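Hi R.,

As promised on Friday, here is the backbone we talked about, encoded as C-alpha cells. Could you run it through your design pipeline when you get a chance and send me back a sequence?
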C-alpha cells in the first residue's frame, strides 16, 4: 500500500473480531487541510508523497497496540487502545503542534473515546463530528489558500520527517 497504513477494511474486520473484547478504543480522525486544492495544483504524484509523509508522521505518534488507518483520500483514523479522554486529547494536541515536531502539512483533528457498549463505528463518527466542530471554530476564509501555500513550501523543500518509518506490517 502507498502509505503503509491499514485500510478501511481493517476497521470492518476489527469490529467483527471485537466480540467480547474488553479493550476500549479512542479514535482520532485526521484530515489534511486543503489537500484537494493542493493535489489539483501539483498533481497526484506530489499528492501521494504528501500522503506518505503524513502517514509516517502519524505512525510515529502511536504505540504498538494502536493502529493508523487510511480511510479515504486524505483522511486517516488513529485507533488508540485503552486511552482515556485526557490521554486521547494529549495525543490529538501533539499531532497539531507547530514547528519541527509538528505535522509535515496542515491537518485538522478531532477525537472521541469509545463509550461502554458503543460500536467503534459510532466512536469514529463522534470523532469526525469533533473534527468538523474544531475546524469550524478555527477556519477563516483564507484557510485553503494558506494551506496550499504552506504545502507548496513543504513540497519545495523536499524535507522529510525525521526518519520515521512504519514499525509493523500493514494490510
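Update: got your reply. Pasting your designed sequence below so it's all in one thread:
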Amino acid at each position: 500500500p502507498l502509505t503503509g497504513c491499514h485500510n478501511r477494511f481493517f476497521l470492518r474486520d476489527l469490529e467483527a473480531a471485537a466480540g467480547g473484547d474488553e479493550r476500549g478504543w479512542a479514535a482520532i480522525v485526521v484530515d489534511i487541510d486543503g489537500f484537494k486544492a493542493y493535489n489539483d495544483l501539483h498533481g497526484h504524484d506530489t499528492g501521494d508523497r504528501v500522503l506518505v509523509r503524513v502517514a509516517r508522521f502519524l505512525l510515529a505518534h502511536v504505540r504498538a497496540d494502536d493502529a493508523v488507518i487510511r480511510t479515504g483520500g486524505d483522511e486517516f483514523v488513529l485507533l488508540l487502545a485503552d486511552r482515556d479522554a485526557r490521554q486521547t486529547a494529549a495525543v490529538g494536541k501533539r499531532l497539531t503542534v507547530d514547528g519541527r515536531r509538528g505535522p509535515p502539512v496542515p491537518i485538522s483533528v478531532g477525537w472521541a473515546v469509545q463509550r461502554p457498549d458503543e460500536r467503534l463505528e459510532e466512536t469514529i463518527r463522534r470523532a469526525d463530528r469533533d473534527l468538523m466542530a474544531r475546524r469550524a471554530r478555527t477556519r477563516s476564509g483564507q484557510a485553503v489558500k494558506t494551506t496550499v501555500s504552506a504545502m507548496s513550501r513543504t513540497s519545495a523543500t523536499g524535507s522529510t520527517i525525521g526518519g520515521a518509518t512504519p514499525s509493523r506490517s500493514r494490510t
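One thing I noticed while checking it: Residues 141-147, 153-171 have pLDDT under 50 and may be disordered.

Thanks again,
M.
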